[in-house]
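Dear colleague,

As promised, here are the two records you asked about, laid out in our usual form so they can be pasted straight into your sheet.

NAME FIELD: protein one
SEQUENCE, THEN STRUCTURE:
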Amino acid sequence: MRLTATLAAYLPPGTRGDSVTIEVPDGATVGQAIRLLNIPPKLERLTVVNGRDASPEQPLAAGDILSVFPPLAGGR
């Protein structure tokens, strides 16, 4: 799992960098993995699994890389 920018604060204590490996039960979803890290449900975020947009209901498989980051803004 990769957490970027302000979301990196939710990585487990003692974790270095912006990524961590976490174990989730078989059939766990993106939303369940996010809850394991105690990221507040109302906190805006984008989720991507293996480089593709992912909904909270998407199941995770062994070896998947879940990336979570705050929404981006900018431009004109």
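NAME FIELD: protein two
SEQUENCE, THEN STRUCTURE:
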Amino acid sequence: MRELFRILLPLLLWLASFSAIYGLHGIGCAFDWTDVTLPALSLFRWALLSAWAGAILLQLLLMWAAARPRSAAPRGFYRWVRLATAWTGLVATLWTLSPIALSTSCG
């Protein structure tokens, strides 16, 4: 059961990140974070970019944990699947969250 959780963890993290960043986008728009200016960017953009960077960092940590030789994952099929889902989670985080973090603004 533990190995199944380790296999699914990158995709669960992507799902949580996706929901959180889109929710953050809605909160930022509702509270006019685009009007709050911070160094170089608005609060809205800082919040979205920080959340996206945090999600990427967490995915990279999961990939590192899956790839390290001392990992508790057994050799063979389980390890391969764990690495595959780690890569899938990272690519999904980069691909699906980049539009909201980089180019979207409030209506």
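A couple of things worth noting about protein two: The mean pLDDT is 88. The radius of gyration is 17 Å.

Best,
R.
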